[in-house]
Design brief:
The complex is a heterodimer of chains A (219) and B (112). In chain A, α5 runs antiparallel to α8 (205-217) and α6 packs across α7 (191-201). Chain A has 219 residues and is an alpha+beta fold. Chain A is elongated and about 55 Å long. Chain A has two domains: 2-119, Beta-Lactamase (2-Layer Sandwich), CATH 3.30.450; 141-217. Helix content of chain A is 47%, strand content 16%. Chain A has a five-stranded antiparallel sheet, with helices on both faces. Chain A has eight helices and five strands, in the order αββαβββαααααα. Chain A has helices at 2-6, 37-57, 94-110, 141-146, 151-165, 169-183, 191-201, 205-217, and strands spanning 14-21, 25-29, 61-67, 72-79, 82-88. Chain B has one domain: Beta-Lactamase (2-Layer Sandwich). Chain B starts with a helix and ends with a helix. Chain B is 43% helix and 27% strand. With 112 residues, chain B is α+β, with helices and mostly antiparallel strands. Chain B has helices at 3-12, 37-58, 96-111; strands at 17-23, 29-32, 65-70, 76-81, 84-90. The chains are: A alpha+beta (219), B alpha+beta (112). β3 of chain A pairs antiparallel with β3 (65-70) of chain B, so a sheet runs across the interface.
């Protein structure tokens, strides 16, 4: 089934896709590794709830499209208790994506791996996510991002990264921020180290250079 | 006509908009001119909660919009509006991007 999902990869602006089966199984996932299973489960549950509520109001519902600054998410029911969820950049070609989903749907529906999870050996991912360890006196990444003197700088850095990396930006920036906090007490003087951590996560040298340029030109 | 009625009248007059339901932070319907508004209001409230979960995992700011695409029927959109949420239908012949731009301009006029 993974090869079927990979056929979606040609859609312009697509980051990846996963198949969620209720009540809490990821059947397949072709998203980059930064999208951890616990994160996908949480998103899957929320999106399926929205899709389900929509289907109660609109029997002819096909797709639910959710648009953010840095990402577009499309959710479609593909079999009993099973949904295909695709993630893309904000400018994802939704028409192209949904057309590709239409073409894949027959293949997906005939895939035996879409059988309800009790009929096969499903890999259900534990929902428990470990709390992030941090020193008691240290502010959390979330607190730093939302309030305090560094919040505008950090938000600008994450915003710039979103323009470079789309839906992965928040996840990657959060991970870098955690690493940074493990090494330093948060201060403006140490922000270049955070920039370096982020730049190392951007695989494409041109994009890395563009990110640094964006930070320089940010007022 | 009070100022709020005036704003709602402006919303209703946006080209391409076929009916709306404005929902408060606790799921209460503040205004509507859509059929089955009670059900739509519940849907809008559920969307708000679900979007918040996805936002927490994926995004750094609230969703711009959520769209329900339906066969050949009118699309239904949900937009955050501060503490409230707005759901509305798109007329079949309307262009989604133009309708969203019209609603965004209306929202900006509320902030002004």
């Amino acid at each position: 089934m993974e090869s079927i999902l990979n056929e979606l990869a040609s859609v312009q602006g697509l980051t990846g896709a996963f198949i969620y089966q209720s009540p809490g199984t990821i059947l397949q996932n072709i998203l980059p590794p930064v999208f951890k299973p616990a994160r996908l489960l949480s998103m899957g549950k929320a999106l399926v709830k929205i899709h389900g509520a929509g289907a109660l109001n609109f029997p002819d519902l096909s797709d639910v499209i959710l648009n953010f600054d840095e990402s577009t998410v499309i959710t479609r029911s593909i079999a009993e208790k099973t949904w295909l969820i695709i993630l893309g950049e904000p400018d994802l070609n939704v028409n192209m994506a949904t057309l590709s989903m239409n073409l894949l749907l027959d293949d997906l529906k005939t895939s035996h791996e879409l059988a309800p999870s009790e009929e096969r050996a499903a890999t259900t991912i534990p929902e428990v996510s470990a709390p992030i360890a941090k020193a008691p006196s240290q502010p959390s990444p979330k607190e730093l991002m939302e309030r305090g003197p560094l919040a505008p700088d950090l938000q600008a850095m994450q915003g710039a990264l979103a323009k470079i990396m789309g839906p992965m930006a928040k996840i990657i920036f959060s991970e870098c921020l955690e690493k940074w906090l493990q090494r330093h007490a948060p201060s403006r003087e140490k922000l270049p180290d955070l920039t370096n951590l982020v730049v190392r996560e951007i695989a494409d040298p041109d994009k890395a250079a563009k990110y640094q340029q964006m930070l320089v030109s940010t007022p | 006509m009070n100022p709020h009625e005036d704003k709602i009248a402006q919303l209703k007059s946006i080209p391409g908009l076929a009916g709306h339901v404005l929902v408060g932070p606790n799921g209460e319907i503040l205004s509507h001119d859509a059929p089955n508004a009670e059900y739509l209001g519940a849907l809008v409230a559920i969307c708000r909660g679900g979007c918040a979960v996805v936002e927490r995992e994926l995004a750094s700011s609230p969703a711009h919009f959520l769209a329900f695409h339906r066969g050949h029927s009118e699309r239904f959109y949900v937009l955050p509006m501060g503490k409230n949420s707005l759901g509305f239908f798109q007329k079949k012949e309307a262009v989604g991007a133009e309708l969203l731009a019209g609603v965004a301009a209306w929202q900006d006029s509320l902030d002004a």
